[in-house]
Amino acid sequence: MNGLIDIRQVITQILGFLIMLWILRQFAWGPVLKMLEDRRQKIAGEFAEAARRQTAADQLKAKYEADLKGIDALSRQKLQEAVAEGQKVAAEIKSQAGADALARVQQAQDEIAREQEKAKEILKEKMIALSLRAAEKVIRTKLDDPGHRKLVSEFLDEVGTAR
Prior knowledge:
It is built from two helices and no strands. It has helices spanning about 5-140, 145-160. It is mainly α. The chain has one domain.
């Protein structure tokens, strides 16, 4: 059986294998492990960066939502102020219109009173003129009772047509 296994060859192969392991460990294993460690750190860094960006995005979203609520509240406030201003302007317009209407009514009443006074003066003048004519007729003619009645009837007819 000596012919089947050569000890020197096995020892040479074992020695070659160990030298190869040592060379691989010195020159290949360290750089491969370093490369794997660098890659692990890069991936961990990317996960940390993603988490940081997610946190920043969440904070920004919360800020925007708060700003949106503030803008919504501000718009409601501005709308209420506009409604109040509109009501104020409407009240002022209504008040001014009421004052204008009262002034016009007062002016119309004053004008009516002046016209009534003029009409009374004109009526008074006409009554005086009619009374003078009636007195003139009475003085010119001596009247008995039927003449008086006729004269009064004529006078009343003249007054009725003078209106």
